[in-house]
Design brief:
The complex is a heterodimer of chains A (about 400) and B (about 475).
Chain A lengths: L4 H7 L5 H13 L19 H8 L18 E4 L2 E5 L1 H5 L3 E4 H7 L1 H8 L7 H9 L2 E7 L4 E11 L4 E9 L4 E11 L5 E10 L4 E9 L5 E10 L4 E8 L4 E10 L5 E10 L4 E10 L5 E10 L4 E10 L6 E11 L5 E10 L4 E10 L3 H9 L4 H14 L8 H17 L1
Parallel strand pairs in A: 1-5, 4-6, 5-7, 6-8, 7-9, 8-10, 9-11, 10-12, 11-13, 12-14, 13-15, 14-16, 15-17, 16-18, 17-19
Antiparallel strand pairs in A: 1-2, 3-4
Chain B lengths: L10 H11 L15 E2 L6 H10 L4 H16 L21 E2 L13 H9 L2 H8 L2 E6 L2 E7 L1 H5 L3 E4 H7 L1 H7 L10 H9 L4 E5 L9 E6 L6 E2 L2 E6 L4 E9 L7 E3 L2 E6 L4 E9 L4 E3 L2 E6 L4 E8 L4 E4 L2 E4 L5 E10 L4 E4 L2 E4 L5 E10 L4 E10 L7 E10 L5 E10 L5 E10 L2 H9 L4 H17 L4 H16 L6
Parallel strand pairs in B: 3-7, 6-9, 7-10, 8-11, 9-12, 10-13, 11-14, 12-15, 13-16, 14-17, 15-18, 16-19, 17-20, 18-21, 19-22, 20-23, 21-23, 22-24, 23-25, 24-26
Antiparallel strand pairs in B: 1-2, 3-4, 5-6
The chains are: A alpha/beta (about 400), B alpha/beta (about 475).
């Protein structure tokens, strides 16, 4: 790879230089993550060195996107730069800033939240070395906020960015994060999203990835949960030619609670690697991960993730459940759930299943007078929609229903 | 098949009394017997040629050994699993012949070796329960016998070395087909240094109603045992083959790297039961694989009790329509040991089914790992598979890891996987104690109940041995007895 610590300096000589160089050094020494699953390390989404070189050598974007649109969101980010912030957020005490200006204007906050963590995954570390810019959102203590964020990137603009969300103590928040593309192109894009859920606070985070089908997308959502913090993530992956999505929560606090409800739709020749993991350190913490997927066309999807309960995390529980509908003869579906349990005072389970739509359920509906296609649609919608039904957000449920119908038409 | 009914009145009391009488592991004694021939320490081309020459092997086998050596030398030690740095490759003795003779009457076995097998109860077991038996001591089979009734029906059962001499064409048809030496480093090692193991051929339509057994004993310090076993169940036949193994405990580590190949032809049924009780100085790295043809059935039943480190994943390749396989395994990870075990099922044909049930218990700082592969290939229509792995952690320091790997390429297939890790539940304990059992008795009952669905498939003699060993491990903690 052409990048060196010197070239990192020449490319990104900003206030985050030390952090970037450190992350880059870690990237160079980090092994390719193998999840300890097989004799040979196998990547299910083939990310090449050339892809990584594209990711860290950003060129100028050709599209400016919908920078003028404001009505459908509270924050709009175009190609890593903030183009709109709803003034009402400021009134509610929510701090919204670009990462570059936060580093200049508030080094203390930057040290606390931006430079605190360089990631655990190899590619995540590389994004931490090479991000162009990003967004910092901080919800104050004892506040409540409901924020819609639209993040759009030019599909021909390879780059990486960062997003950091802080949910202050005892606050109640919801963040809807719609992540899409503008224009056409085969860019390689990366995004690290770090979420700090502080003591006693609760955050519902919705991540909807609807990028152009030619873009390679790598996103790492890492959450840090303090004492009695609650974090629920609803993630939907639909776009991208090669998609690497990783959602990992570090449950450091006592009694913290992490819930994941995910859905992935792969079609055509898409390749998706959806990873959901918990790393449980605090006592009596809980992780509950439920992921559903649908595979059609010649696409492939792998669901994998670990429930990792450390030695001190006594009285904790961890559950992982993955189910994939394999809807075509040319499609591939894999699952690799893992349990890493290092103390005896815990309960943990995982389960996974891969199959086509259950014929018995279709038969049941047909005996009630529903035709075959409609029965299939109902079963599929029910299956794929079940995780996000836990959300009170009707827009999210509607989107998943829409994607399910779209998929059924292709099948 | 004998079932163990743990609920029987007085059963717990009896087992606890048994336990109290156990002071030391029964199988860790060792003999002062010196091998009559040894290639010394280390493995190289000269040693491999020497092994082949001593055995007076045909040239094709010598060439296969040398090819395997090349593969062995070219492959790195796997790093994706447990730590294998304790294997002292250069100081291991790869071939030790205990005696010049190979006999089929216990009376002709040298006294010291016979005594060892008598202590292990092998001749008695053969008389009572078995259709045939092979006994291997260090690198060579020292005894083999098959009841005449089965010999008359064309069954072949002997150590593989004898079979290479006596039935070379038959051996050639099956040797290293299911497990090629290029499969992994330890299979290659076996291909280069193999000695002993069994060859069992059951002709078409012959159904053997009693099990056949091979017992492996590793006596020397810092030695290796590399047996190669081939079981062939021809069309419409039925066979149950059992393997047991023990070794004394030494300060220097020993290495066991076996290959087991099982061929279950059309409409045949084969069951392979193994109870591994190597001592805690043995690295146990076998490769076991079955090819299962149309409408045939393969059953793996295993108990991994001993050894320092075990890496074992018996595999079933379901090659013909309606082929089926089941894999039941118990792992006991005692103090200071790692059990990296699991199973693989590869569905290659339509309507094939597989079931994997794995149970593990971790005691003290023992580490139990389940690692498995389930693969349904395109075209294996309407195949079904179910995987269940449960782990029980006894102490705070115990740990358990589960790494299943499931790949499905066929939309009409149905596959389900479940795993759980937990400890003995307070509610269960409270319930049993409210019925008058002490805490230790209740714990013991729960542990044995946890293993019951696998244990009931294991032959009586081995199930009793496993019960005792599990209880012994637990008694060291004061949990039982």
């Amino acid at each position: 790879m052409g990048l060196t610590t010197e070239s990192v300096k020449s490319l990104f000589d900003d206030g985050a230089y030390d952090y970037r160089v450190n992350a880059f050094k870690e990237f160079l020494s980090a092994p390719v993550r193998d999840y300890k699953e097989s004799p040979t390390t196998r990547e299910y989404v083939d990310i090449t060195t050339q892809d990584l070189e594209k990711l860290i050598s950003p060129e100028q974007p050709s599209e400016t996107g919908n920078s003028g649109k404001t009505g459908d969101c509270d924050i709009r980010v175009i190609n890593a730069g903030i183009s709109y912030v709803n003034p009402a957020l400021e009134k509610d005490g929510v701090m919204v800033n670009s990462i570059s200006s936060l580093i200049q204007e508030n080094p203390e906050l930057a040290r606390k939240y931006i430079f605190r963590n360089s990631g655990r995954d190899r590619i995540e570390k590389l994004i931490n070395a090479s991000w162009v810019d990003g967004i910092f959102v901080m919800i104050p203590e004892n506040a409540s906020a409901d924020i819609t964020l639209r993040q759009e990137s030019d599909a021909s603009y390879s780059h990486s960015m960062k997003a950091v969300f802080v949910c202050g103590r005892e606050s109640r928040c919801r963040i809807r994060d719609y992540y899409g593309s503008t224009g056409q192109g085969t860019a390689v894009q990366g995004r690290n999203i770090y979420i700090y859920v502080e003591e006693g606070s609760r955050l519902d985070y919705e991540y909807v990835q609807e990028k152009s089908h030619e873009v390679t997308d790598m996103a790492f959502v890492r959450s840090f949960l303090e004492d009695y913090a609650e974090f629920s993530i609803y993630h939907v992956s639909r776009g991208g030619s090669r998609v690497l999505f990783q959602n990992e929560s570090e449950l450091n606090g006592r009694g913290s609670d992490f819930r994941t409800y995910g859905v992935s739709f792969s079609n055509g020749s898409q390749r998706m690697d959806i990873r959901d993991s918990s790393f449980q350190v605090g006592t009596a913490c809980n992780a509950d991960i439920q992921v559903r997927g649908a595979v059609s066309g010649q696409s492939s999807t792998i669901h994998r993730g670990n429930v990792d309960i450390e030695a001190d995390s006594v009285k904790s529980t961890g559950f992982y459940d993955s189910r994939i509908l394999l809807l075509s003869r040319e499609g591939h579906a894999n699952s690799k759930p893992g349990l890493l349990i290092k103390n005896s005072d815990t309960k943990s389970k995982h389960g996974s299943a891969i199959s086509d739509v259950d014929e018995e359920q279709i038969f049941y509906l047909r005996t009630r007078g529903i035709d075959s296609n409609m029965a299939r649609a109902i079963v599929m919608e029910g299956f794929l929609g079940s995780p996000v039904e836990k959300s009170s957000d009707k827009e999210l449920i509607r989107k998943v229903q829409e994607y399910s119908r779209e998929l059924l038409q292709n099948v | 098949m004998v079932e163990i009914d743990l609920k029987r009145e007085g059963e717990i009391e009896k087992l606890l009394n048994d336990l109290k009488s156990i002071k030391n592991p029964d199988y860790e004694f060792h003999d002062s017997l010196k091998p009559v021939y040894s290639t010394g320490k280390g493995l190289n081309r000269k040693v491999v040629e020497e092994i082949s020459e001593v055995k007076k092997e045909p040239d094709w086998m010598r060439r296969l050994r040398l090819k395997a050596l090349e593969v062995f030398e070219s492959k790195p030690v796997p790093t994706w699993g447990p730590d294998l740095s304790g294997i002292d490759w250069d100081n291991t003795s790869y071939y030790n012949r205990p005696d010049e003779r190979r006999v089929n009457d216990w009376e002709d076995v040298p006294d010291q070796i016979k005594e060892t097998f008598q202590k292990l109860g092998i001749p008695e077991m053969e008389q009572k329960y078995l259709a045939g038996s092979v006994a291997q001591y260090d690198s060579e089979g020292v005894y083999h016998n098959l009841r005449k009734v089965w010999e008359d029906k064309g069954v072949v059962f002997m150590d593989l070395d004898s079979a290479v001499q006596k039935y070379p064409d038959l051996v050639k048809d099956y040797y290293c087909r299911a497990v090629p030496v290029s499969d992994n480093k330890f299979a290659a090692l076996n291909g280069a240094a193999w000695s002993g193991g069994s060859f069992l051929y059951v002709p078409k339509g012959v159904q053997i109603d009693m099990p056949l057994q091979t017992y492996f004993r590793m006596n020397g310090e810092g030695t290796g045992q590399f047996e190669h076993t081939i079981v062939v169940a021809d069309e419409g036949s039925k066979v149950h083959y059992i393997e047991g193994c023990t070794a004394p405990r030494y300060d220097r580590n020993s290495l066991h790297s076996a290959i087991v190949e099982i061929y279950v032809h059309r409409n045949a049924r084969a069951r392979y039961t193994s109870v591994q009780n190597w001592s805690k100085s043995v690295y146990n790295m076998p490769t076991k694989r079955a090819w299962v043809d149309a409408n045939a059935n393969m059953e793996w039943v295993g108990g991994s009790l001993g050894s320092k480190v075990t890496m074992l994943y018996p595999s079933s390749y379901l090659r013909g329509p309606y082929a089926s396989a089941s894999n039941l395994n118990i792992s006991l990870a005692g103090a200071g040991t790692v059990k990296d075990t699991g199973a693989k099922a590869i569905h290659l044909a339509p309507h094939t089914t597989s079931k994997i049930v794995a149970k593990s218990i971790s005691i003290e700082d023992g580490k139990a790992i389940y690692r498995g592969l389930l693969r349904v290939n395109k075209g294996a229509e309407y195949s079904k598979s179910r995987v269940q792995c449960d782990a029980l952690l006894i102490n705070d320091k115990s740990s358990s890891y589960t790494f299943p790997h499931d790949e499905v390429y066929e939309p009409t297939a149905t596959f389900g996987h479940e795993a759980s890790v937990g400890r003995i539940g307070t509610e269960e304990l409270t319930y049993l104690r409210s019925r008058g059992l002490t805490e230790d008795e209740a714990s013991s009952m729960i542990v044995l109940g946890f293993l019951d669905d696998v244990m009931r498939e294991i032959p009586m003699e081995f199930a009793v041995e496993m019960n005792r060993l599990i209880k012994l491990e637990m008694s060291k903690l004061g949990a039982v007895g």
